[in-house]
Amino acid sequence: MKKMQRQGCGCYRERHNRWIEPSILYLLYEKKKHGYELMTELPELGFIGKTVDPGAIYRMLRHLEQAGLVFSQWDTTGSGPARRVYTLSDLGRNHLYRWADALEKRRNSLDAFLAKLEAILQKKEDKP
Amino acid sequence: MKKMQRQGCGCYRERHNRWIEPSILYLLYEKKKHGYELMTELPELGFIGKTVDPGAIYRMLRHLEQAGLVFSQWDTTGSGPARRVYTLSDLGRNHLYRWADALEKRRNSLDAFLAKLEAILQKKEDKP
DNA sequence: GGTTATTATATGTCTAAAACATATATAAAT
DNA sequence: ATTTATATATGTTTTAGACATATAATAACC
Predict the structure, then answer these.
(1) Which nucleotides of C are covered by protein (CB under 7 A)?
(2) Is there contact between A36 and strand D, defined as CB under 7 Å from any strand atom?
(3) Residue A18 and residue B17: Cα distance in Å, rounded?
(4) Residue B96 lies in a domain
(5) Per the structure, how many domains does chain A have?
(6) CATH, residue A104
(7) Torsion of CA A30, A35, A41, A43, to 10 degrees
(8) Residue closest to sugar C1' of C7 by CA
(9) pLDDT, tens digit (0-9, with 9 covering 90-100), for B54-78
(10) Tens digit of pLDDT for each residue in A82-102?
(11) Distance, Å, A54 CA → C10 C1'
């Protein structure tokens, strides 16, 4: 087994866990879209650092379709390469509602923890 | 490559990303503790579902020590098996401060996204 | 006309946090 | 004696996301 190998400084990179799935479901809730379109809109949702990985998006779309949360049709009208356009299903819509619940719980626990952290940060600033 | 194999219903299990590290750092900020103690206190922090995985904790403690964020001493006083007691270092304390910043950013993006989700949930409840 | 850029989809491999499982030992409780 | 609680540790699997690259159609450029 290879060694874990992290920086001695304990540096870490923040990873937003499972944000692609709910983000895509949300963007498709508004209206049907193709992968590339999602790729350009995802950063505006604020969940992201710099660039979006196309691989992650197209793979997620395939998974969502397999799970029946979205369905797709090829769109060959217009210019450029063919687009696979995804539509949110009823199942997908309900899934998004459940995601909202889950994310709210996530926020609540995050809030509780941040409150504790802020309390100790306060103490830190008291001593100059 | 094995198949992804997720439930057809699109079920997912919430995973709290990178919560063990800041949680342990926070608990050690209060006072030095051994692994088993952390294991019992972690659920109270709210980040958790049901049970804590001891493996994750002990491995994280080893990593934190390698990174110089904590240091440990064996405590053989008292009854029961020997305890390895961990103390937060200055580096560890600073690391916790940086974690606080990172988690605040995480909360902000989560808040922004939840605001959008709540807006569509509102619309859903409007139609009976 | 030929090269480059943009639009668009797709697959392959790697990383690492967490989940799941199990091994080991001391001592107290039944 | 056997079970339970305390305590630490390692082995294996899963999986979201990161990183890299392949592909093709068409538009834009010189």
Answers:
(1) 6-13, 15-23, 25-28
(2) no
(3) 9
(4) yes
(5) 1
(6) 1.10.10.10
(7) 130
(8) A80
(9) 999 999 999 999 999 999 999 999 8
(10) 999 999 999 999 999 999 988
(11) 9
Q: Which residue's structure tokens are 């687009």? A: A83
pLDDT of residue B79: 87
Find, in chain B, the residue whose alpha carbon is nearest to that of A7.
B67
Percent of chain A with pLDDT over 90: 59
A106-119 in b/e form (b: 16+ CB < 10 A) is bbeebeebbebbee
The whole-number Å distance from A21's CA to D29's C1' is: 39
pLDDT for B77-94, tens place per residue? 988 899 999 999 999 999
pLDDT higher than threshold 70 for residue A6:
no
Nucleotide whose C1' lies closest to the alpha carbon of residue B81: C26
- What CA–CA distance (Å, rounded) separates B112 from A10? 29
Distance B72 CA to C9 C1' (A): 52
**Following DSSP, what letter does each residue of B63-121 receive, concatenated?**
HHHHTTSEEEEEE--SSSS-EEEEEE-HHHHHHHHHHHHHHHHHHHHHHHHHHHHHHHH
Domain containing residue B98? 20-126
Which nucleotides of strand D come closer than 7 angstroms to any CB of the protein? 5-12, 14-22, 24-27
| Predicted pLDDT of residue A47 | 73
- Residue B3 is assigned to a structural domain of this protein: no
State the pLDDT confidence band at A27, using cuts at 50, 70 and 90.
Answer: very high
